[in-house]
């Protein structure tokens, strides 16, 4: 599963359908359509409507990019998490980068690496963001779409510095391509990361595993309280009724098992009584002809003996 979590989008963009179709052909499965806001946040912010008839193999997400240069601009970030699937910030100076790494409730820190940065990336500052579950984003679009040799050189140098400062951890790679010509295939992106200093395995994680973690953690923040989830049922229709019936069946099974154990214990203690009851309950077998003759003969002998005894008594 390949992710591209930064595709600029506006409601009046007529080329977005071609871009999405090309992304689906390249093998991407999840795409985030981003909306960028610079300066003071407006009073009413709503994500644009998703394009109609997107490719069926693509899962579309909404994303908000906030360009921040003043700490007073981040007061409403918590309320925006319910409107967008992903919240990303783009700090313009070192002070805002430090604030984003340590305090801001965001999902992604996206840096414009196509321009020369007036500060150095520090491991302690960036590792604080990674420890909080925030990923650092590298956008390759501005450096490969004909923006000039300076933009390409700055992208390579800044990406290498960022990878060196983060030890290659917590990095995702997105396109930020406004047209289909600026999008690259997943394995081409992995080759780019190898040029920047990442291994091939880490480069694949940047567009697969790390990007998936961004989506999962963002969903976790929206649907839970401080990362605590209460799973009521599995989400299928009629699961509550099925669980109730299963509980009843399991309780009945336990009762039957207990009864059988009690009966088994009684049978071990009172084998004789149980065997006698079993013998009494067995049906009587019919007498054979030989047994009937033997009993008749015995009865005649008993009758003769009784007559002889009575005659003897009378004579005496």
TrEMBL record:
Molecular function terms, GO-annotated: RNA binding
Keyword entries, A-Z: tRNA processing
Pfam family, one: RNase_P_p30
Assigned GO CC terms: nucleolar ribonuclease P complex
Region entry Disordered, spans: 236-316
GO biological process, one term: tRNA processing
Subcellular location: Nucleus
Entry similarity comment: Belongs to the eukaryotic/archaeal RNase P protein component 3 family.
Protein name per its UniProtKB record: Uncharacterized protein
């Amino acid at each position: 599963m390949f992710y591209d979590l930064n595709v600029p989008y506006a409601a009046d963009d007529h080329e977005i359908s071609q871009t999405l179709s090309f992304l689906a052909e390249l093998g991407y499965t999840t795409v985030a359509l981003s909306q960028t806001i610079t300066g003071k946040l407006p009073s009413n912010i709503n994500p644009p409507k998703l394009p109609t008839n997107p490719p069926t193999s693509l899962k579309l997400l909404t994303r908000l990019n906030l360009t921040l240069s003043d700490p007073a601009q981040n007061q409403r970030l918590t309320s925006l998490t319910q409107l967008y699937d992903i919240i990303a910030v783009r700090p313009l100076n070192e002070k805002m980068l430090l604030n984003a790494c340590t305090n801001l409730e965001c999902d992604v820190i996206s840096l414009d690496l196509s321009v020369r940065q007036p500060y150095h990336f520090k491991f302690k500052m960036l590792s604080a963001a990674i420890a909080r579950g925030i990923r650092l984003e590298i956008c390759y679009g501005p450096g490969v779409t004909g923006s000039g040799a300076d933009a390409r050189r700055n992208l390579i140098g800044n990406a290498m510095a960022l990878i060196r400062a983060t030890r290659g951890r917590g990095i995702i790679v997105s396109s930020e391509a406004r047209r289909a010509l600026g999008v690259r295939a997943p394995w081409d992106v992995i080759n780019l990361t190898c040029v920047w200093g990442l291994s091939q395995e880490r480069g694949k994680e940047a567009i697969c595993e790390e990007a998936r973690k961004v989506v999962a953690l963002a969903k976790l923040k929206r649907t839970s309280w401080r990362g605590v989830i209460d799973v009521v049922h599995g989400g299928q229709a009629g699961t509550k009724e099925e669980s109730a019936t299963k509980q009843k069946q399991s309780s009945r099974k336990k009762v039957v098992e207990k009864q059988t154990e009690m009966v088994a214990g009684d049978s071990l203690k009172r084998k004789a009584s149980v065997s006698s009851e079993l013998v009494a309950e067995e049906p009587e077998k019919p007498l054979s002809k030989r047994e009937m003759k033997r009993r008749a003969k015995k009865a005649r002998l008993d009758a003769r003996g009784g007559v002889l005894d009575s005659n003897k008594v009378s004579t005496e």
